[in-house]
Here is the input.
Amino acid sequence: MIMRDLLDSKEEASVKLPILNLTQESFAPYGKVIEQPVRTHDAAGPGWAWWGENALLAGDERPFGIGYLDLNLADLTFDWAERHMSSMELLIPVGGDCLVYVGPPDDPDQPDRLPPLVRFQVFRVRQGQGVLLERGVWHGAPLALDQPLKVVVLLHQDTGKDDGYVVRFPETPVMIER
Here is the structure.
């Protein structure tokens, strides 16, 4: 994992971002929304319906790892972001809604170059939804909104170690407006 602090930033002293409604269209620059499809199910039986292959998680020779986040209530701010240039990442909240902050996948040839903080967006991911982040999208750990919850995370094995670019900006934390 490559980490650095953002010391040469000319960002405003305070950035505030609103919480946006999560739709396929609003999230398209960052990846795909995972939710119950509006199309007819592929199969069904007593008490269940199945919609298969609603999104594809690109693979390589590495197996997938399943991570587990335990989120508790905290200030709705963030002062770091990461991205993975070779790996997609799937986030699925369990037991409540969470917030996911994302930034555009700009400058792929400079993986530790953070876009301006005002270009980040914050989305509410409702229980029963998930988000599939495209390669190179800036993001951080989801934030609990109304209650503690868990988030299941799916990404390739050793992504954090071999494909993680982290930038910290403690001097200019981003605040999220309710």
About this structure: The first helix runs from residue 24 to 27. The domain at 21-37+63-177 is CATH 2.60.120.480 (Jelly Rolls). The helical segments are 24-27, 159-162.
